[in-house]
UniProtKB/TrEMBL annotation:
Alphabetic keyword roster: DNA-binding, Transcription, Transcription regulation
One annotated GO molecular function: DNA binding
Gene Ontology biological process terms in this record: negative regulation of DNA-templated transcription
Source organism (scientific name): Pelagicoccus enzymogenes
Protein name according to UniProt: BlaI/MecI/CopY family transcriptional regulator
Family in the record: Belongs to the BlaI transcriptional regulatory family.
Source organism superkingdom: Bacteria
InterPro entries per record: BlaI_family, WH-like_DNA-bd_sf, WH_DNA-bd_sf
One Pfam family of this chain: Penicillinase_R
């Protein structure tokens, strides 16, 4: 299976994202397996999961990998990182592309820990190292 790094180009709804979370975890699964993997508080009808999986297929986020008996096995075609990146980019565009208001809110509300900041700092250093490797 080869997953594209880019996103589908179409926005994913919260329920589509939840289905994708299951598929990223399972790697490949039938609609029934996806339905059964959803958290208990989010159990939905088989036909609802089927409709969402077919919608994801149309958007290019999943594909039919094979067929076992009557069941199609679906697998994600986009990575979790690219899908989440697209959502975050869309969200930040609401703030003119600046992460500062979001980060300040997260810090003030207690949703951003020192461990989170350390991981963020490490990621920034890694990214800058890749971009400016020849300047250092």
């Amino acid at each position: 299976m080869s997953m594209k790094k880019k996103s589908t180009g179409e926005k994913l709804s919260p329920m589509e994202l939840e289905i994708m979370q299951s598929l990223w975890k399972l790697k490949a699964a039938s609609i029934r397996e996806v339905q059964e993997s959803l958290p208990e508080k989010r159990q939905v009808e088989y036909t609802t999961v089927q409709t969402i999986v077919y919608r994801l297929e149309k958007k290019g986020a999943v594909r039919r990998a094979k067929k076992i008996g009557n069941a199609h096995i679906f697998e994600p075609t986009v990575t979790k990182k690219s899908a989440i990146g697209s959502i975050v980019d869309d969200f930040l565009s609401l703030f003119g592309g600046s992460a500062e208001p979001v980060m300040l809110h997260m810090a003030e509300s207690g949703k951003l820990s020192l461990e989170d900041l350390k991981a963020l700092e490490d990621a920034i250093k890694q990214t800058q190292g890749k971009k400016g490797g020849e300047n250092e």
